[in-house]
Amino acid sequence: ARLARGAALPGGGPEARATRLLLRPGSPKASSSAKSEIRVTGVGDIDSFVQRVQAEEVSASNAPIERLLLVTKAQAAEAAMRQVAPRLQPGAVVVLLCNGALALQEQIGVGGIHVVLGLTTHGAWSKADFDVVHAGWGDTRFGKVGPIPESLYQSTLQHLETAGLGATDDSDIRRSLWLKLAANAVINPMTALSEKPNGFILDSAAQSQVQKVCQEVADVAKAMQDEGGSCPSLQDMLGFVRKTASQTADNMSSMLQDIRAGRSTEIDFINGWVAAKALQYGIEASENARLVAMVKQKERMQSSHQ
Ligand SMILES: CC(C)(CO)[C@@H](O)C(=O)[O-]
């Protein structure tokens, strides 16, 4: 197996290591009979497996939380943090593994906790509740963004490894998050608007728009360089965007999935954040702003048809 899964863990067995999945209050998933496992079906040579979980509403318990992996949609992250905040132990570690992590990091402020930022470029979609298709192989990495005791950080990485997420430590996570933001700023709105899989952005007809969006993201990254981390160049961003699109060529981006399901999208935390930062720094970002307007218009049209 390319990833070590909970089911294969030594000592304690899968039961002892089941991941606790906290669902939002009133989630219909909490009453599902399938809630003790997540079935993951790999496409092509990607492994299929079953991950044991213990799913319950966040309000079902007051048990203190020492380590939290936040994997909500970007627009749901702030509310989720408010719901778990009373349970977070002083010195707890919150690992943010959401699209738009650079934007969220500014928004999510709970005193007395350590934040670790993560990113993943794996392509996946949900067939049904607790039933996921792993459609494109990618990379998952984590990094420190503030002071955190080294032993606590290392043990958090160990937990993430044990849970099967891989534990690549990225010493320049902000740089990697800028690359990921460029991939999301290009792939997500362009595939949502064209209703095509991720490979669409590799078409020659898409190149001038890809270039414009990346140029604006690179300009904002450069302007914000003083806020920490090194800054990827435009060429680095273009290379990363194309690599991600070819690794996940047949996958439907999360934004296209949201549009098709009549849900709100993460556009405000991706292109919307780039456009807002550009305004703040007096930089031109009209292509990102245009994509925000078009995706919002499509969101409204789709939700009125649901
Ligand atoms: C990497 C990515 C673009 C793959 O589809 C994913 O982050 C997504 O869909 O949001």
Summarize this structure as a short list of keywords or feature phrases.
5-stranded mixed beta sheet, 306 residues, 10 helices, alpha/beta, binds pantoate, 20% strand, globular
Written description of the protein model:
This protein has helices spanning 13-16, 74-84, 101-107, 150-162, 173-194, 207-223, 234-247, 254-260, 271-280, 286-305, and strands at 19-23, 37-42, 49-57, 65-70, 88-96, 114-120, 123-128, 131-136, 140-144, 168-169. By secondary structure, it is of the alpha/beta class. The strands form 2 sheets. The chain has a 5-stranded mixed beta sheet with strand order 1-3-2-8-7, with no helix packed on it. A 5-stranded mixed beta sheet has the order 4-5-6-9-10, sandwiched between helices. Strand 2 (37-42) and strand 3 (49-57) form a beta hairpin. The longest helix has 22 residues, at 173-194. The protein starts with 12 loop residues before the first helix and ends with a helix.
| Form type | globular
Mean pLDDT: 89
Termini gap: 40 Å
Number of helical regions: 10
Task: Flag low-confidence runs.
Answer: 1-16
- Order of the strands making up the biggest sheet: 1-3-2-8-7
The hetero molecules present are: pantoate
- Gyration radius from CA atoms, angstroms: 19 Å
By DSSP, the count of extended strands is 10
Largest β-sheet summary: 5 strands, mixed
Strand % is 15-25%
Overall structural class, as computed from helix and strand content, comes to alpha/beta
